[in-house]
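Late entry, evening session. Most of the bench is empty. Finally got around to the prediction I had been postponing all week. Sequence below, unchanged from the version circulated by S.P.
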Amino acid sequence: MWPFDIVDWLMLAVPIAYLFVLIGSLAVFSSLYRKRKAASAASLEPWFPPHLQRNVYMSLLHMENPKVPDSILKAALLRRATEDIHRIVQVRNAKQALQVLLQRGSVGDDLWKRFQRAEKEIEEELRDVVSEANAFAPNWGQTIFQSASEMAQNTHIRERLNDILSTSQSEKEWWEKRKATIQSEFMKELDDEKEASVVSPVKGSDDDAVLVEGGGPADSLKGKKKKGKN
């Protein structure tokens, strides 16, 4: 009885040990793969530059002496949400074009991983802003991004207007220079035409003088008649 039981246990122990070894190997491989993937993702360059508005808000929020008033904190949070609006627009505009380039093989997987990480970061950022806004006032998280969007549009309009004004000034200066050049060229052409009109009659008078001095057809006929009479 005992030998048979030992053999049975040994036959069961072999596959059980194999399963333990297999599961352990898979666990080690999975852990190493996740660590390597995390290290690779951490080594990728961020899609966006550092979030300055978020850093300013967090610095003001954790100031204890003196304590920052809520009005300033709300303004800083609104500026943070405005920067988030700019980043959302950039992500939406870049996603479709990046997908097309990825399908064509024009960009590598690293760029796509950077973009996906940026999407996750912006989603977490939006949730954090909503949570912070609701902590200041109930339901403010539902309207803060609407206010931030209006601020972003106003900022864009002001920047566009400044660009137009600066461009119009340079175009005005260019047109003034061009107008002066055209005027000077036109006056030069008028002066050349005046000089040509003054010189041409003088040449004609010289030719007439030569004809008079040399004698014309009428003078030659008169000379022949006088010779015939003689």
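Two things to note before I forget:
Confidence is low (pLDDT under 50) at residues 202-218, 224-230.
The two ends are 181 Å apart (CA to CA).
Will write this up properly tomorrow.
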